[in-house]
Amino acid sequence: ELIEALEGIVKKLLLSFEKQSKQRPKQLIFYRDGVSEGQFRKVLEDEIPLIEKVLLPI
């Protein structure tokens, strides 16, 4: 199961973190649920680029 609004969610969380801590996170850890073993590669291929798209301009 892919998260449809992942890009917006990640951006909102990163901006909130930066506002509260006055710094950018050094690392991100994502816990995913609802992904079967057969869907795992597809989720990685679709979601990692969305996360990277948010991180590059920051």
- Rounded to an integer in angstroms, the radius of gyration calculated over CA atoms is 13 Å
| Secondary structure: number of strands | 0
The shape is elongated
Query: What's the quaternary structure here?
Result: single chain
Distance between the termini: 27 Å
How many structural domains?
Answer: 1
Output the structural class.
Answer: mainly alpha
Overall pLDDT score: 89
How much helical structure, as a percent, in the residues? 55-70%
Largest sheet: none
Residue fraction in strands: under 5%
Q: State the order of secondary-structure elements, H for helix, E for strand.
A: HH
Poorly predicted runs are: none
Annotation field: number of helices: 2
Short structural description:
It contains 2 helices and no strands.
SSE map:
Layout: H1 6-21, H2 40-55
Q: Could you describe the 3D structure shown?
A:
- The protein is mainly alpha-helical.
- It has one domain (6-55).
- Helix content is 55%, strand content 0%.
- Helix 1 (6-21) crosses helix 2 (40-55).
- It holds the Pfam family Piwi.
